[in-house]
Amino acid sequence: MLKALEDCLRVGFDLKDVKIITKNELSSFQDYKRLPLNDKYVLVVKGELPYKKAHYLLETARELFHKLIQAEEAIKKLHLLQEEVDIVIKSSELFFSQGNIENFFMFLKDKKVALIENGKIILNTGIDKFTIETSIRKLKKIKEFTSPFKEGEIYGVEFGAYQLIVQDEKEKLDEFSKKIIKTRLLWLDKLFKERNEYLIDDLTGLYTRKKFFYDLKKNYGKSAIFINLKQFWLINSIYGVEFGDKFLKEFGQLLKKISYSENVYRVYGEKFAVVFDNPEEAIEFRELLLSKVSQGIKLYNEKLSTYFEIKPEVSTVIIFSLNELSVEEVMVTFKGKYTGNRNHSILEIDILPKLQKEKEIIKILEKAISEKKVVPHYQKIQNLQDKNDFYFESLMRIDNGKDLLYPAQFLDISRMHGFYPKLSELLLEKVILDSKKTSKRFSINIEVLDLLREDFLDFVKGLVQEHRIDAGNIIFELTENEDFVKVVEDKKDVFFKLRDMNICFAIDDFGKGYSNFNYLTILPISIVKIDGSLISRITSDRKVLLIVENINSIAHGLGIKTVAEFVSDEEIYKLVKDIGIDYAQGFYISKPESLDNLI
């Protein structure tokens, strides 16, 4: 605090040396001008100091010192308050997690007691159910905090979550006990409301994700089913968000109704969880749920004044034994990477083996990046009219020390865990080094999202300059997909900046899914690679042949070269040549291998 004040005065008054010392330290500062700050501290300043400036300096120092002392005291009070709050929270959490309600009302140990939470009996030491029900109705009816019945009294917080019934056949409660009951019920109710403000989902009325994890320890070893409403966004898109919210609420209530369980949670978005005592209950519930959703859920649309019957598609994962790790693994599964075509999986049987394999791949990828074990293999792309004209497509492999991993084994995992950008950079650098061995061109597959990275352009420029290569020998291959659409709309200039460096662009898998001829007119595309799924069928399907001929014709009309992918035999080779396609790629031409074996 004193150091901060010294710095403030030094800078504010343009002084070379200012210190705040105790009176006992004065002997060490004989050459300093002394200004008494208070009974304990002295302000000492080195150098000349006019009277007016000294007076103003001292007044300012005293004011700041006073404010700092106040702030320090306030911070101490805050720390004490925080400690008190922590103690209250910890004791409250202990009470709710361990359910020591008896300890909470220990002073009532010789009496019959029933504690009711939102109409549900959570403690009863011997009062009959009829008495409890009639007492609660009476309490709600008269809206009082306390009212007598038989040989006891009922207590509750008006419109609150808790009611307490106390029977004592010998004598009525003393006033002090009544005050304690009132205080504890008010505190209980306040705590309940605060907790449920975050633990109950406003839309569906189900428990929230926070509540799910709050309950997880007490649910250890139990079973759970996680439910995902697949493609829920379609409901929002077709019927509107308001109707979508209504559907989520109805679906949540359906889960509660058919599960007969209090433990139904909306874990996030359109994803839910239901906890059961054993796996058999979870499996039985899943069959019932699938039956219900196949019958459809009827909802009234106010805007259109009509009913709609929605038959949602759901996917489910069952956990046989709940714990933190199993839940974390299911959350990963909900991203859609492991269930594949199987909409309904069991974690321990269907998913865990795949997750274990993923962990092994992650270790390999981490090591490959740190030791630069990315290995390029190359496949020849042959000019169909000139055998001396060919170039190479580079394909990524990972050296794990024993053998090579192929993209199908690691590419999706690398993207999901953020390894792909670094792998891509390592591959690009190795391909550029290999390109110095020959005058041939090299094509490299890059992700469209690479073009969105702020540093990608500078990274490519740096490699080209560092290794002094002809950038005209580099071709970037991109696949059309949803991300491609975003780049074309938002980052079109990146294509032209790379083109200005003489780098060429190829569109991979053209004719599959997202193909849009318009991109060929607005982007600097030099090559179109016609998708292998089309090329492999041109000898057996006349319609596919016409599509390939048209793609080739339009591309040539725009001055763009064409490549036929998946040329696997002589019949396909001759046909793509007759069509007039410029280049061919496939096992009939060559298989991927190291560059040294190809040149």
List the defining traits of the structure above.
599 residues, alpha/beta, eight-stranded mixed barrel, six-stranded mixed β-sheet, 22% strand
Number of helices: 20
Q: Approximately what portion of the residues adopt beta-strand conformation?
A: 15-25%
Rg, nearest Å: 37 Å
Mean pLDDT: 84
SS-derived structural category: alpha/beta
Poorly predicted ranges? 337-341
Task: List the quaternary state of the chains.
Answer: single chain
Biggest sheet architecture: 8 strands, mixed, barrel
Termini separation (Å)?
A: 72 Å
- The count of DSSP E runs of length 2 or more, i.e. the number of strands, is 25
Main-sheet strand order equals: 17-18-20-21-22-23-24-25
Shape: flat
Helix content: 40-55%
Can you characterise this structure?
There is one protein chain. With 599 residues, the chain is of the alpha/beta class. The chain is built from 20 helices and 25 strands. Residues 337-341 have low confidence and may be disordered. The relative contact order is 0.04. The strands form 5 sheets. An 8-stranded mixed beta barrel has the order 17-18-20-21-22-23-24-25, surrounded by 5 helices. Strands 9-11-12-10-15-16 form a 6-stranded mixed beta sheet, with helices on both faces.
